[in-house]
Model the fold of this input.
Amino acid sequence: MIRIATLVLIFMIAGSANAPADSSATAISRAATLRESGDLKVAVAVLGDALKAPNLSAAQRKELEFQIDVLKRIKMDYPLTRDDLFTQLSAAIKDLTPAEFDQWIAQGRFDRKTIDGQTWFEDECVRNLFNQYPELASRRLGHKDDAALQRERLEVCRAIKKAAQDQQTPYVLPHHFVCTMTVTAEKGAAPAGELVRAWLPVPRRYPFQDQFEVIRSSSPVKVLAPETSPIRSAYFEQPAAKDGSAEFAITYSYTISGVHFDMDPAKVRSTDLRDPVLKKFTSEAPHVVFNDKIKELANRIAGNETNPMREAREIYDWIGGNIKFSYAREYSTLTNLGLYCLASGYGDCGEEALLFITLCRCRGIPARWQAGWNTFPGHVSNHDWSEIYLAPYGWVPVDPWASLYAMRYCTSLTPSERTELRDFYFGGLDYYRMAANSDHNQELDPPKQSLRSDNVDFQRGELEWGHTNIYFDKYDFALSVQELE
Done:
């Protein structure tokens, strides 16, 4: 049954063709409310009506088009019916019964959304069930034991920490890698012969990461963003094939060191926020909002502590003890990643990082995004983490995901080993990384003419033809990694 409020709104839209269109800001606000209630068709109509208004600026038009596209993306993120989900779960969990499934539904164990009157489930529900309820691990079918991975991560961190202490420097044990990033647009992604534009992430320069060199590429690199770009990319152009497909690839080498800051809170002093760069990273930004809930939580976690290092450490430990890991829906469909993570009690690495960044900034501690890829042998994946500024040490890495990974999921390690692993990633970073970003919600170089597929992060590449975005459902991406002696 369609709700009365929805019927009235449909009538207003359909029956008042001569009424003036909403301003773009009002339409976006109304559409956001409708989106949250699941009335996506009506939201599309509201935004479409606003697009008909005369004298829209280019920025207003682009934002309205983006909000319409977000509604399509949400539907892609929730593709499963209840029966679909039960079928997937039955293949993943030993002895699952319909009664148990019904109980889990009633308990709210699955991310679901009512869209235009029908309930749909998020496409990562099965994997996230095991992340959020690790006690089900013994019933998981076909799951690979990761005890060796946990041990390997711990040993890498131990080696970095020891080398840093022995050499009295935070940057140690440089490792050399050759990587190939490949992005392949599928058949029909663009009209035949149309110029396809592509941005692929590449390593930016950091104190711990340098010696980047392009070895080869599928076509000449048209623009290589500066080595200190907050969102470093290699930009390509090439025509789509006869079937509308296109493939872009870049092979590069770089060197990255392990990081371990042996920090002493007694030596940490307050940050001089007269520095405009540091001031920026204590301010609100997209996905970094100091609302009452954030202020209350930050003050509750850190209390009366005034030492920035101890404050940040309290926040880091709180996330590790209170947030569970969960694969996320697309960032572009969420208005605030950190608040979403806090409200849900779970999130992926990027959501956890932005929650940490927000809480730190709220306490006056400069904090910023860091992102790219995790290149750990056999477990290559895109990954996000963060940095905080602590005088006199400067920018030091903090990986909030590692806090909860160590304490909640490294069950093959002893309690003391789990604590050791957690402690390393507050001020430490392993050398199995490729860092392409130093801030979130940044503009590509050159800017896209169309919408961004991910307007927060940049790890999987971005594609477009003309003024049309090629979204994630139309292309594949992969990073192959070779470690050199």
Notes: The chain has 15 helices and 18 strands. The longest strand covers residues 171-185. The chain has three domains: 4-77, 82-139, 144-485. The longest helix spans residues 147-167.
